[in-house]
Description:
Blueprint: E1 12-18, H1 22-32, E2 38-43, E3 55-59, H2 67-74, E4 81-86, E5 89-90, H3 93-102, E6 110-119, E7 129-134, E8 137-150, H4 166-171, E9 176-185, H5 191-208, H6 215-225, H7 229-243, H8 246-268
Parallel strand pairs: 1-2, 1-4, 2-3, 6-9
Antiparallel strand pairs: 4-8, 5-9, 6-8, 7-8
Amino acid sequence: MNRERVIKADTITLLIMCKDEFTKVKNIIKSLEKYVQEIVVVITGNVTVGEQGFVKVLYYPWHDDYSAPLNAGLRLCTSKWILRLDTDEEMDSINIKKVTQAVTFSTVDAFEVNQRGYLPEDRNEFGVKKVPKYNGYTKAVDDRCIRLFKNDPRIFFEFNTHETLYNSLKRSKLVYKKTNIVIHHWGKLTMSEKAPYYYKIALERLKRFPDDYQSYYYVGVAADFIGKLDVAYEVFKKGYEKYKTSYYKDPLDFVERKRRLLDGRRKVN
C-alpha cells in the first residue's frame, strides 16, 4: 500500500463508508465530532455531498468488495489513529471516552473491540446472549474485530466481505490489544433485507480465499440466516474438519439442532 504516514500525536480520523445513507453518516459525525480531528467518508453510491470543515469525501465505484473502498479512504487519513465505523453503528459517551484513552498507548498498533449486534427478543441465532439494556434491546451477538488502529501503511483491509485487518497486522508483526470497548451495531435488525446478498459475496470469498480461516464460517452464517440449513451444516462441517476448533464446532452443533427441530416439526405435521 502506497500510503504516506502522517504523525499527529494522539489524533483520530473517523473513517466511514456509505452507499446512499448520508443522513446516518451526519448523525455519526454529530455524535463524534468533538472527539476526532478529521473525518473521511467514502461514498460508493450515487449521493453527492460537499466537503466542509474537517470532513473529506471520496467517491468510489462499488464492485462487490468492501475492502477496496476502505483502503482508498485510508490514503486520505492524516491523523495518527483511525476509528472505523459503519453507517448502522453508534458509540455512547462511555465507550468514546475509552477510545480517547486507548490512543495514548504508544506500544500498541491496534485495538480489538466488541461489535455488539442487537437482535429482537423473538429472534434466535448462533452466539446470541443477554447484554446490558441499550435503547430497549437486551439480546445481542458480540463479534470481536479491529476498529481502532494506527495510521500505518502496513495496516490495511482484506477480503471482499467481512473485511479484516488481522492478516496485515500479523504479517507485519504488529501488536493489537483486546479491549472492552463496545460499538453498538444495528445491522442485524435489517438482516433479512441484506442476507441474500451477503450469502452471494460470502460464496465468492470462499471461492477466492478457500484457505482463509473464516471463509467457511461466513458462508455458513449467511446460509443459516436465509434458511439454507443443509448448506450451513455442510460448510461448518468442512470448516471443522479442516481446523478442528470450536469456532466451527459450536455453529455446526447449533445448525444441527435447528435441523433436528425442523425435521421433528415436519413429522408432526
